[in-house]
Specification:
mainly beta, 57% strand, globular, 115 residues
Amino acid sequence: QVQLVESGGGLVQAGGSLRLSCAASGNIFTINVMGWYRQTPGKQRELVATITSNGRPNFAESLKGRFTISRDNAKKMVYLQMNSLKPEDTAIYYCNAIINFQNYWGQGTQVTVSS
């Protein structure tokens, strides 16, 4: 059973940093793009960043310079390094990946930034 599991969320003060991890597991033959999205109550899920299998990143314009996405193909993992966090970054962060040509989502991990 293919699944994505996020970890690393938590409570952090404004200006702090946090590193999220996402591990893919199961009967996996191919993984194409991987990425991160986030969602707050009353709002639609929005793109944070994606990264191709060759390591090419794509960021939401407003997050460039603060967040960094990376991946380890051997470990089947994708990471999100978040720096200079702001209260408006508070959200549930979801891992996303195209695995075996299908779209998968993780269960989400809560990130809360206090002011």
